[in-house]
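@channel sequence for tomorrow's demo:
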Amino acid sequence: MSANTRSLSALSEAGLTPTNIKFIMPNRTLLSRLDELPIIENASLPGPRIPVTKSKSDLKVIRVIEIPGYSR
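structure tokens (generated this afternoon):
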């Protein structure tokens, strides 16, 4: 699971995978994000696809980034 989907998305679009991984203990706020409804139809959280939106307030999906090598 990634707490930093912006960096993971950028690496994925470049065809790269993370090389500097920091393991964290998720706090209550981060864990509560798993209860959010996905904005991609038929998606799960966490999942292998990251939606790109204009902003946090405009959730219109511009494109979807696929995470290579994702396994659950």
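heads up for whoever presents: The mean pLDDT is 87.
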